[in-house]
Design a protein that fits this description.
The structure is a single chain. The protein is mainly α. The protein has a single domain, classed as ABC transporter involved in vitamin B12 uptake, BtuC (Orthogonal Bundle), CATH 1.10.3470. The protein is built from 16 helices and four strands. A hairpin with a 2-residue loop joins strand 2 and strand 3.
Length: 340
């Protein structure tokens, strides 16, 4: 009887192909979302093994986290513009102008630091409005318009500064930016974390964030659905310049002064960070947390290379290669998302 029961047992039915395919898609989606974090962890592990005493030192960790607040905030300016489908290559020039305005007003004209900051932020709004007028109303391509605006602003900075580096900005701003307050971290890092949460919430949960995403994906479809495409694009450009000006405020507080050219060096790393960030968390979308992770992944690599004695020029090679890879990966992620 037992033998009969054994042979009469019905074989298991094969697992449906659809469930296997669904599982594979879930694994692929998970790996796409968090592959950057795995690469970041591997980078940390490699340099921790190569330079355990310096790379894992508390001072190095807190310095790395705190020193990149300016770059992260500038990256968020690009996140907003690119979400709306606009390339704003003037953000680094806005950052430089903002820091120089603060330095001139505060150190030479002896204007209160709070009023100097407000003036710098107002300049950012004006630049964004000018960009929006040229791009949205006149119809100039955003890369051409903002490239010209960036060159114009660089000339203005050289003009108003006389080509000189200024120092001596009020200690109250320096204290609010670079002095360690929380677990050895400066307040600038805390500001950036707060900005990350705010930008993530706006782009993910508020109607304006979803509308910007629709406009960035297809202006014509958005226009047919009743969205005010021009107003949304203009608003995104204003917001991008305002965030860049805020990054200039942090930069002025970080350096305690301003110089007419160094802020321009942030442009390439910011683009690398924003495109690499579009490959993680929300693949195919420019997003806050992805950009945050991307910037610190790249900076971790640069920091580790410098600690093991690699020459400084490798930084440009690293960021340039990262930008090429990031843009390619971002485009592939967007195509894969559109195909699903």
């Amino acid at each position: 009887m037992a033998t009969k029961g054994f042979w009469s047992r019905r074989p298991r039915s094969p697992r449906p192909a659809t469930s296997v395919g669904a599982r594979n898609r879930r694994i692929q989606a998970f790996s796409s979302k968090y592959a950057l974090f795995a690469a970041w962890a591997c980078t940390i592990l490699i340099f921790a093994l190569l330079e355990p005493h310096t790379f894992l030192a508390r001072e190095n960790i807190t310095s790395t986290l705190s020193s990149q607040a300016v770059l992260v905030l500038l990256t968020y300016a690009l996140v907003v513009a690119l979400t709306a489908g606009e390339y704003d290559v003037s953000v680094a020039a806005v950052l430089t102008l903002s820091s120089m305005i603060i330095a001139i007003l505060n150190t030479e004209d002896h204007i209160n630091i709070a009023l100097s900051i407000l003036a710098a932020l107002a300049i950012g709004l004006l630049v964004g409005a000018a960009n929006g007028f040229v791009i949205v109303v006149i119809g100039v391509d955003s890369i051409i318009a903002t490239l010209g605006m960036g060159s114009l602003l660089s000339g203005v900075v050289l003009w108003i500064s006389g080509g000189n580096t200024l120092s001596g900005i009020s200690n109250s701003l320096v204290t609010l930016v670079v002095v360690p307050h929380v677990f050895g971290l400066s307040l600038s890092f805390i500001y950036v974390v707060a900005a990350t949460i705010l930008l993530w919430y706006v782009l993910s949960y508020l109607p304006v964030g979803r509308r910007l995403l629709y406009v960035g994906r297809s202006r014509e479809v958005s226009r047919l659905t009743g969205l005010r495409v021009g107003r949304l694009r203009w608003g995104a450009l204003i917001a991008a310049s305002f965030i860049a000006a805020a990054a200039g405020v942090l930069y002025a507080g970080t350096t305690g002064g301003a110089d007419p050219t160094s802020g321009l060096a942030f442009l390439l790393p910011a683009f690398a960070g924003v495109f690499l960030g579009a490959t993680t968390i929300q693949p195919g979308r420019f997003n806050a947390w992805g950009s945050f992770a991307a910037v610190y992944f790249l900076v971790t690599g640069i920091n580790g290379l410098s600690l093991i004695g690699i020459q400084v020029f490798v930084q440009d090679l690293f960021y340039g290669a990262a930008l090429i890879v990031a843009v390619s990966a971002s485009m592939l992620a967007r195509r894969r998302t559109s195909a699903l």
